[in-house]
């Protein structure tokens, strides 16, 4: 009976000739992943700086630098993706106001300035102390970073505090805009049935928080263990509670989107259904949903609700964070690349075969995901994460 | 008094220098910053474009799937293999109303052999030529981040290859998949309805070469034109993916409901 209604069927797997190419590949999956970590890490620091969650104090500075390190690399996937990267400044010189993408240059730059200023103001007393201890190049660098001001009087510190509160305060909505808008880049494409949903910015924002908090927990515990320093378990427990909260909402929205498709069964449903049960079965149902969502949810439930020893937190905390980082990678992959596998003919799927050495290939992607960690290491030499503790 | 005069003079000089500096800086900024592509609006003037509203009609009942249009287009624009400004699809309906579609090599070689992989008797076959829909509300123009894709005052959706950054957002946004990333220029490419020919009063090259007049092009404001007569006549005329709301200027005469 279906055929009487002219429903497109998959009998001939017909893909529009121009749809054989997957134009947005690994780099465009990586780009929202990196900006998501930036937004998420910033929100962790804001939980202390704006919302006064004292338990998060040990990582409040670290998470800001973590965000900064990833922000420094956020444009690289885009530059690798562009056909004409040398023209990248056009996006700021001749922005098209109706394009969701055109805001990127401005939002990204403003956010970068805000993040840098916040780091400099929060670190000012530390930088002044470091300046007194250092010589030569480092002294000059610290003079530059403190804008030549050594004034640590109570009035001056009070002014700093006000500025920090203001920056952190406007930083929260800006982090939401930075990542919500990335979601809208996809959500605003009506031609793609898997992207065109108002839920897309919400899902992107929530998964950003999940990846940011997970990244902070994982790297924090790793650094402390490698440096043979004690891990602040109360801080990790608090982080895990927030992670659980954000992830539950994130996962509910991700599933709501799929549920809406299968309940409403609109014209494109047969394609979405066949996509998820066919080419995306492993990366979506098996990977994103079962192994890397349901299992972490169970572990998080145990960690947050059960009576769990400190050692278990120290081991299971980073583990569940790592799993959720993978979950978000899979989610980006399934949305960005999975969404493009459906041909706009509604009659077939194209295929995507990632390459290793192509400029948008797997190897550059691995290098790109490691680059922020190298930057974080360099940043730690200038901005010590735990200065007071090291001094004591 | 003298001091006052002097300070006045100085003030004037300062104002003058300030103004010169401001003028120079803003003037040179205008030279440095490239404006959006539609700033230099094409001259409509008294040329062949004045007061015209061009539409394209594909008469599905006429197309024989010879591929002449695709060959002519490929030659006109040196389109690389594997990329298509225009293509022809073959639709086959079997006795159980199952639809089979294919378009090997975009139909550029024509459909010289029947399909042999169908199990049941064939009820109906037809060809569907595809090209840019020249939407009145084009998604590609809406999403282009740098204003490289624009709609000209005479209704053509065009690409400025000097501005395009090759982000492929327009390719994602086009509901009809008529766009591709040109492998050599690394910028977006698509059918232009042969804008360079139309501006000289010629027909698009695919219309010119079609041996059966399946492709029709003309001015809706010319009441004697064939396109006007077809669109205002009693025949069944549809557009592709009407639900997208893009308002295409490409129409199909007698296309069956299976056509996507």
Can you describe what's shown?
The complex is a heterodimer of chains A (392) and B (260). Chain A has 392 residues and is mostly helical. Chain A has 2 domains: 28-187 and 356-392, no CATH class; 223-352, no CATH class. Chain A has helices spanning 26-49, 57-71, 76-81, 90-93, 104-133, 136-145, 154-187, 199-226, 233-264, 269-277, 281-305, 310-341, 362-382, 387-391. In chain A, helix 2 crosses helix 5 and helix 5 (104-133) runs antiparallel to helix 7. Chain B is of the alpha+beta class and 260 residues long. Chain B is built from 7 helices and 11 strands. In chain B, the strands form 4 sheets. Chain B has a 4-stranded mixed sheet, covered by helices on one side. In chain B, strands 3-2-4 form a 3-stranded antiparallel sheet, with no helix packed on it. A two-stranded antiparallel sheet of chain B has the order 5-6. In chain B, strand 2 and strand 3 (99-102) form a beta hairpin. The mean pLDDT of chain B is 90. The chains are: A mainly alpha (392), B alpha+beta (260). At the A-B interface, helix 4 of A face strand 3, helix 3, helix 4 and strand 7 of B.
Short description:
The complex is a heterodimer of chains A (392) and B (260). Chain A is mainly alpha-helical and 392 residues long.
* Number of E strands of chain B: 11
Helix tally of chain B equals 7
Quick one: overall form of chain B?
A: elongated
Task: Please give the CATH class of the largest domain in chain B.
Answer: Alpha Beta
How would you sum up the global shape of chain A?
A: globular
Considering residues with a beta carbon less than 8 A from a beta carbon on another chain, report the largest interface and each chain's count.
Answer: A-B, 50 and 57 residues
List low-pLDDT spans of chain B: none
Radius of gyration of chain A, rounded? 23 Å
**Any idea what the CATH architecture of the largest domain in chain B is?**
2-Layer Sandwich
